[in-house]
Amino acid sequence: MFTGDDRYRRWVEGGEEAIEVQPFGEVLLTVGVTPLLVDVPRYNEVMTLDVVPVTSDGLPQTPGKLTGLVVPYYYNVTSTDVDLGRMSVVTLYIMNLPSVGSNAVYGGELPRIVNLRLGNASEYPGWTVALSASTLGFNRILEKKDVELYVTAPRELRYYSGVALVPITITSSDNLYSENIYMNFRAVYVDLFISRSDIVVKRSIGGGEATVSFRIRAEGLKPSGNFRVNIYLDGKQVESLLLGSLNPSGGVVSTEEEIKVELPEVKWYRGEEEHTITFLIDPDDSVYEANPLNFDLGEGNNHITKSFVARYPTLSYRGGGVLIVIFLLAFLSILYLIYRYGLTHIAFHMMLGAAVIALAGSIMTIPLSTRATRRYWTL
User: Fold this and answer.
1) Are 213 and 244 in contact (CB under 8 A)?
2) What single DSSP character describes residue 329?
3) Contact 279, 231 (CB under 8 A)
């Protein structure tokens, strides 16, 4: 009968019994009082040992075999949330797999170092875990480690319905074992955005002043914190607002603001003038934004420009200019009659002077009418 120690369970004399051993090199089995050091292949490979059990007094027994499947370690985490853009601490557990059969036997393992690296080598530092043979057992924790995880490039991760799959590479110190796996985390993020439909330029009369209302939205799982919004008219900054934190809590929330802006004066009136108004959310990048459901969003939807038109009514002659023209036409008619029927020299010079005054009065009607016309600003 194979006795061994508590770590290796038992072996039935003369028969074959399944065992499971962990990978990473050598396994020390004790058959009776005779130690047996064997090489363990990579995981998921079958290992068969030819053994000759001995009795407690050293007498050999019928040769037999030990056959088993080399199984990998099992990795688990306690935290399922990774805050994109901030340092997150997660606890990684390294466990051995549970037995897969009633006759399964776990083999032991010498203490060794396992190197683990999260994400890209350029982004995450590697760290080591010392595995002790004394901790091996049925579905037991071999080691646990608190990992500081900082995701700076969320686009490089894999996502499925908002779940981030963080890559982790595990290798043994002797390079006999290497595996790339993905650990599942919930990606905690916030995304600020604005669309053209959120911007309304309201009608304003006189002075070139326009009233603009706008709505900033937030989507995600965490508060945004305070953030700034810069507003530009025709490419020139006209306003900078500091807005309070938005907390979407897994949905979408918004804040609505209203401002007044002075539109530039137009020297030559053509009936209408086109302007642009631009909004830039979080220009100083104080909020780390990422939307794992759509990478075209995130920082990419913080900038929007909308065009609008300032319209003017058709110009017409108003005020004193029209009266001056009528008066001068009547005066010219009288002078013509005088010239026609006498006082030729004096009437000619008076008619010439009146013509000059009429021409000047006609020209004056344009600025007079312009100042008397109100301007209407619409979309």
Assistant:
1) no
2) H
3) yes
| Nearest alpha carbon to residue 338 among 349, 326, 327, 323 | 349
Contact criterion met (CB below 8 Å) for 83 and 222? yes
- Do residues 187 and 156 touch, judged by C-beta distance below 8 A? no
Instruction: Indicate the pairing of strand 46-51 with strand 64-70.
Output: antiparallel
120/124 Cα distance (integer angstroms): 6
Helices (H), the chain: 320-341, 344-372
Summarised one tens digit per residue, pLDDT across range 205-259 is 545 778 899 999 998 888 999 999 999 998 999 999 999 999 998 889 999 999 9
Q: How far apart are the first and last CA of the chain?
A: 94
Separation of alpha carbons 370 and 312, rounded Å: 11
In sequence order, the 6+-apart residues with CB closer than 8 A to the CB of 296 are none
Task: Give the tokens for residue 242.
Answer: 């500091």
Tell me how far apart the alpha carbons of residues 105 and 99 are, in angstroms, rounded to a whole number: 8
**Is residue 65 pLDDT above 80, yes or no?**
no
Q: Which of 201, 203, 205, 202 is nearest to 375 (CA)?
A: 205
Q: How many CB atoms lie within 10 A of CB 232?
A: 16
Amino acid sitting at position 158: R
What is the DSSP secondary-structure string of 155-172? GGSEEETTEEEEEEEEEE
- Going by C-beta distance under 8 Å and a sequence separation of 6 or more, which residues neighbour residue 147? 89, 90, 91, 92, 118, 127
DSSP assignment of 287-299 equals S----TT-TTSGG
Q: Report whether 191 contacts 235 (CB < 8 A).
A: no
E strands, 33-80, in order:
34-40, 46-51, 64-70, 73-77
What is the C-alpha separation between 149 and 20, in angstroms, rounded? 33
Give the Å distances, CA to CA, from 376 to 210, 248, 312: 10, 39, 6
Instruction: Round to whole Å and give the CA distance between 377 and 201.
Output: 9
Residue type, 22: Q
Contact call for residues 322 and 364 (beta carbons, < 8 A): no
134 φψ region: left (φ > 0), alpha (ψ -120 to 50), beta (else): alpha
Q: What pTM was estimated for this model as a whole?
A: 0.54
